[in-house]
Design goal:
There is one protein chain. By secondary structure, the chain is of the alpha+beta class. The chain has a single domain, classed as Nucleic acid-binding proteins (OB fold (Dihydrolipoamide Acetyltransferase, E2P), Beta Barrel). The chain has one helix and four strands. The protein has a four-stranded antiparallel beta sheet, with no helix packed on it. A hairpin with a 4-residue loop joins strand 2 and strand 3. The radius of gyration is 18 Å and the shape is flat. The termini are far apart. 3% of the residues are buried.
Length: 90
């Protein structure tokens, strides 16, 4: 399935600022996205409530295959979090 690239300008508002990422609510009730801090281009100190704009295209699934390495890493991290909640050592 190949669609022509259609770049769409989107805007949002910063709702969370973490050490390594920024949470953005997209305008128009389109959802929420969290991006690494290194992806944010700015000349200003980042603060909650500031507006951002970016160009976005459609997200395209590349194929039916599952990347087992990512799946196993996700399961391992989930298991570690569950163990921490129980008080077990890793």
């Amino acid at each position: 399935m190949k669609y022509g690239d259609k770049v769409i300008y989107m805007e949002g508002v910063i709702v969370e600022v973490h050490d390594g990422s920024v949470g953005i609510d997209l305008k128009g009730r389109l959802g929420y996205i969290e991006v690494p801090m290194r992806m944010l281009i700015t000349d200003y100190e980042i603060k909650v409530g500031q507006e951002v704009g970016f160009n976005m295209s459609f997200i395209e699934q590349l194929g039916p295959d599952v990347n087992e390495k990512y799946v196993s890493n996700i399961k391992e991290i989930k298991q570690q979090k569950e163990n921490l909640m129980k008080g077990d050592k890793i």
